[in-house]
Write a sequence for this structure.
């Protein structure tokens, strides 16, 4: 009987000690949408989740800034302020806010009517929803879309 107890104790210890707390048992969600910013929509658009996310979830948003040799270049929001020197010192900034049901993406500018079409028309965004524990306890660079995508095994 002592041998059975010892074997049971040892096997329980081995199995529980093999658990790696650094693994993320997370379910990340990724969404993509394209919008055009203009005066009619107040230079903002709202993306609605199919169903509410958890209040504790964290939302990350990236803007498709460029395509380089066939590879998408994603820039995290909020962006650095873009200064358009050739247009009366016009500035452009993309930012976002979110609730458990939606994400608002906003284009802010001191002269919105002077922002060129390549910064307002057909802007593509990726929205990544991650559990708060991932965002708080990870060494993953959350500003790097590819690093987040890889860590969460997201396919898009």
């Amino acid at each position: 009987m002592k041998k059975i107890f010892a074997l049971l104790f040892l096997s329980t210890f081995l199995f529980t000690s093999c658990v790696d707390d650094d693994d993320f048992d997370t379910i990340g969600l990724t969404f993509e949408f394209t919008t055009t910013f203009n005066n009619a929509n107040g230079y903002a658009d709202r993306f609605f989740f199919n169903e509410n996310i958890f209040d504790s979830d964290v939302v990350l948003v990236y803007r498709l800034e460029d395509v380089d040799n066939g590879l998408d270049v994603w820039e995290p929001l909020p962006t650095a302020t873009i200064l358009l020197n050739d247009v009366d010192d016009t500035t452009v900034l993309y930012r976002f806010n979110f609730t458990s049901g939606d994400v608002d993406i906003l284009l802010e500018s001191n002269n919105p009517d002077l922002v060129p079409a390549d910064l307002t028309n057909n802007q593509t965004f990726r929205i990544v929803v991650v559990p708060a524990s991932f965002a708080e306890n990870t060494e993953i660079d959350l500003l790097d879309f590819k690093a987040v995508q890889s860590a969460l095994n997201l396919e898009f």
Notes: Helices lie at 2-17, 117-120, 132-136, 145-151.
